Amino acid sequence: MNNFKLSALDLATVSKGDTVKQAIDRSVAGAQYIEKLGYERIWFAEHHNMEHIASSATAVLIGHVASKTNTIRIGSGGIMLPNHAPLVVAEQFGTLESLYPGRIDLGLGRAPGTDQVTAMALRRNNINTAFYFKDDIRALQQYFENDDPTEKVRAFPGEGLAIPLYILGSSTDSAHLAAELGLPYAFAAHFAPAMFEQAAAIYRREFKPSRHLQHPYFIACVNIIAADTTPEATFLSTSLFNMFAGILTNHRRPLSPPTEKVIYDGIPEIEKAVYNMTACTFIGDAQRVADEVSAFAKTYQVDEIMTTNYIFDSAKRLDSFRIIRDALLGA
Asked: What's the pTM?
């Protein structure tokens, strides 16, 4: 049995033929199911101007899923902090923590979670907010930890609440920052694996203990498609690969049923691009998943595996969560 924790990342992806409400219901069902399986947490990611993703109002979705579950931790993977005033984030997550005490995580990212035009709309033309990421994290910490009643601006709800912060990233910049601040670090290897190895080494080498965390805590987010047999898992994985091909070619589609061959079969440029984006993807039956993911976690000293689950069929999606749990943590 592995000693790392197991969790999930969800974007409330809209499947072909479904509505946004059905996508959110599917996310709730997934959270309820993995809660019973013993997963540590489920995070929702902030994305904007993406027709087939329903997690843009991330704090609202977190509250909804938290209300439908009992024990599993719910959080953001992440809140794109440059899009928001730190005070508003402190108030939102202070409210969530007040409603669901001991269950809320606040993962923070620097990217806009969208295209530059939409980022301008979100930030009211102040595109330079990303340069203040570190300062905004410090401001958030101050709002949560303030004990000075004379401060002119305070976060209510929020002040005095121990909401854990996580730094998210897909580059080495975020690794340096998480290490400097002494915060847990989650790397988005599920879509940007190129700098994963380098970032993992930087984070552990440069980590400075803080009052929040004495030792490095490293989360790797990866794609895992598990099924009863490896051929079935390979077939189911075409939904994921076709989705990424749509992103790369700017022909975004809802999550679609699997296909006998990927839709870009025989187009080398797209094949290479999809492979580069999805290099941290594990596909197979329980034994193959156990062997490959366990070796990956050991090599990179991963404290927590966070899995995506882009499987079209809802029943097979839930069953994949079970197979992953059994493979990595034991039945």
From this structure: 0.97
Residues contacting residue 312 through CB under 8 Å, at least 6 positions apart = 15, 16, 236, 239, 255, 256, 257, 258
Both tokens of 27, joined, read 């996310």
Q: What is the pLDDT of residue 128?
A: 77
Q: Which domain holds residue 119?
A: 5-229+281-329
3-state secondary structure 19-55: CHHHHHHHHHHHHHHHHHHCCCEEEECCCCCCCCECC
CB neighbours of residue 212 within 10 Å? 15
Instruction: For residue 256, tell me if it sits in a domain.
Output: no
Q: Is residue 276 part of a domain?
A: no
Q: Note whether residue 64 is domain-resident.
A: yes
Going by C-alpha positions, the residue among 111, 108, 92, 83 that lies closest to residue 181 is 108
Q: Using CA of residue 270, residue 275, residue 281, residue 285, what is the dihedral sign?
A: positive
As a whole number of angstroms, the distance between CA 186 and CA 305 comes to: 10
Task: Report the pLDDT value the prediction gives residue 125, as an integer from 0 to 100.
Answer: 66
Q: How confident is the model over 137-141, as a mean pLDDT?
A: 98
- Token pair listed for 154: 């305070």
Q: In the chain, at which residue ranges do the beta strands (DSSP E only) sit?
A: 5-10, 41-44, 73-80, 104-109, 165-169, 185-187, 218-226, 281-284, 304-308
- CATH number, residue 310: 3.20.20.30
pLDDT tops 80 at residue 127: no
The total domain count for the chain is 1
* 67-116 confidence digits (pLDDT tens): 999 999 999 999 999 999 999 999 999 999 999 999 999 999 998 888 88
Least Cα distance to 263 among 283, 282, 284, 244 occurs for 244
| DSSP string for 164-188 | PEEEEESSHHHHHHHHHHT--EEE-
Residue 254 covered by a domain = no
